[in-house]
């Protein structure tokens, strides 16, 4: 029974050896950018409505010495198009230009680059970008904590589990009220076969985010490993209700259906 529940629930995440979700909901993001230059505002508006056109405009603008604003708009356009390596390269160019200009936004641009490299499955470059963001010394403590969490995800993707644990523990110290910090820590503890810590950390995550499908799915996974099948089913039921249209909710519903559990109540909520 446990094996079936775990195998089906695992369908919501990446295959081993990386148990931490790459697209976590709270990936560190720079503060919302406020355009000042009219051309910058026009380009950013196009990113939202017509990213292909925004990309062409940004490339032309950058070629005509558009500077940091053009690089940023180009990176955001690539992001909207999910062209991750190109987005990361544009953000790194913006970070480099910001460093030369002593612009405090350089750390934010390195964060954007790191998340783009991570989304593009290049964890080594992601870690390097996150290191540069932290080294800039201009991030607020909360953002530093979030970057440590994202660096942990990159470390897991690179196969460096001890490094991931070190970053997660730093992140937990800096953002103790972030449920996804505890969620990621619990998932890594499960990977490390530290069931006691996994149970403690997922309990904190559930307490902080009791209606999040991904958190509830992981709680079901950990309960299943602990031999608590009834508790696992209850968590899967809650996950299926909380996020019927999300990968976590669908995985929980599949686990329940395979094991004869009650069908979840339909809902439109998703992550």
Question: Can you describe what's shown?
Answer:
The structure is a single chain. This protein is an all-alpha fold and 271 residues long. The chain is built from 14 helices and no strands. The relative contact order is 0.11.
Concise structural overview:
The chain is mainly alpha-helical and 271 residues long. It has helices at 2-9, 38-49, 51-63, 67-80, 84-100, 106-119, 123-135, 141-157, 161-174, 179-191, 195-208, 213-225, 229-242, 247-258.
Distance between the termini: 28 Å
Largest sheet: none
**H and E string:** HHHHHHHHHHHHHH
Overall helicity: 55-70%
**Percentage of residues in DSSP E strands:** under 5%
Estimate the mean pLDDT confidence.
86
| Apparent shape | elongated
Rg, please?
A: 20 Å
Q: pLDDT under 50 segments (min length 5)?
A: 1-26, 263-271
Question: What structural class do helix, strand and pairing data support?
Answer: mainly alpha
Q: How many beta strands in the DSSP annotation? A: 0
Helical stretch tally: 14
Layout: helices, strands, pairs:
Blueprint: H1 2-9, H2 38-49, H3 51-63, H4 67-80, H5 84-100, H6 106-119, H7 123-135, H8 141-157, H9 161-174, H10 179-191, H11 195-208, H12 213-225, H13 229-242, H14 247-258
Helix pairs in contact: 1-12, 1-14, 2-3, 2-4, 3-4, 4-5, 5-6, 6-7, 6-8, 7-8, 8-9, 9-10, 10-11, 10-12, 11-12, 12-13, 12-14, 13-14
Which key phrases capture this entry?
mainly alpha; 271 residues; disordered C terminus; elongated; 69% helix; disordered N terminus; 14 helices
